[in-house]
Amino acid sequence: MKGAARLAPGRPSPAPAWETSDPYAAALRSGHGPLYLRRTDGWLLPLEVERWCARADAVDLDVLDRCEGAVLDVGCGPGRLVAELAARGRTVLGIDVSEAAVTRTVRLGGQSLRRSVFEPLPGEGRWDTVLLMDGNVGIGGDPRTLLGRVAALLAPGGLLIAETAGSDIDERAHVQVVDVTDGDAAGSPFPWARIGTPALLGHARDTGWRPAAQWTSGERRFVALRSSRSASSSAEPPNSTAVTSSQRARKPSADSPVTPW
């Protein structure tokens, strides 16, 4: 992303322009693209709309197997992960600033709110796992601010699982969602970041997180980070109950769901 505009540090806008992006909403309603993020210099990043609108695939399922307790999916999109966790009897909430995303998630059987991660959210400080999938570690264009916000959402010792970029980058830009097949229809510009695994681990160390795991599955890369507010437990696919305390929701089951909001 050479030549991209650099953003000054600070709190991102509480409502990124996904919510005003008609091309994004139209793509989610139809279930297919093509759709891109376009940088101010014209560079395009393809968005995997078809995969997002399909059922959770094998790579997704591996991530979900690593989740602990009650799960908050930040930027849940059309809801494939929320729906899969709900079908397992897990306590899960998706948030997204796109009305089309929330509508589709609910239609699939998941719970979802139209909300920015930077707005007040249900269950703050009590979530066991937060997901930042499909590039959502770039929300707001300032990964350190986002990491700080996620830390406030998690219970002590909680787990963040983030999907990182496929290359070792640490870039910020203003982008638009565009449909190049529809008269170059575009949403409003908003700040975004693309973060590779080494850069995310660096930001995490500087903001008080502890690395828990990192892995590659197919062509996708992931990092698990542990909140430093309490002792950690393994981020490997769990065979045991998540860490519990009087301030932390118990790992839910189909018979005794936990409702943290």
Strand order of the largest sheet: 5-4-3-6-7-12-11
| Strand elements, count | 12
Helix content: 10-25%
Q: Label the CATH architecture of the domain at 56-172 and 192-227.
A: 3-Layer(aba) Sandwich
Estimate the mean pLDDT confidence.
83
CATH superfamily of the domain at 56-172 and 192-227: Vaccinia Virus protein VP39
Could you say which structural class the secondary elements and strand pairing correspond to?
alpha/beta
The low-confidence runs, each spanning 5 or more residues with pLDDT under 50, are 1-21, 231-261
Beta-strand share of residues: 25-35%
Query: End-to-end distance, in Å?
Result: 39 Å
Rg, rounded, reads 17 Å
Oligomeric status of the shown chains?
single chain
Shape summary: globular
Total of DSSP H or I helical runs spanning 4+ residues: 7
The string of secondary-structure elements, in order, is HEEHHEHEHEEHEEEEHEE
Largest sheet: 7 strands, mixed
Supply the key terms.
261 residues, alpha/beta, Rossmann fold, 12 strands, disordered N terminus, disordered C terminus
Notes on the protein architecture:
This protein is an alpha/beta fold. It has a domain at 56-172 and 192-227: Rossmann fold, CATH 3.40.50.150. Helix content is 23%, strand content 27%. The protein contains seven helices and twelve strands. A seven-stranded mixed beta sheet has the order 5-4-3-6-7-12-11, with helices on both faces. Strands 1, 2, 8, 9 and 10 form a five-stranded antiparallel beta sheet that branches. Strand 6, helix 6 and strand 7 (154-164) form a beta-alpha-beta unit. Mean pLDDT is 83; it is low at 1-21 and 231-261. Residues 226-235 have a biased composition (Low complexity). One of its GO terms (molecular function) is methyltransferase activity.
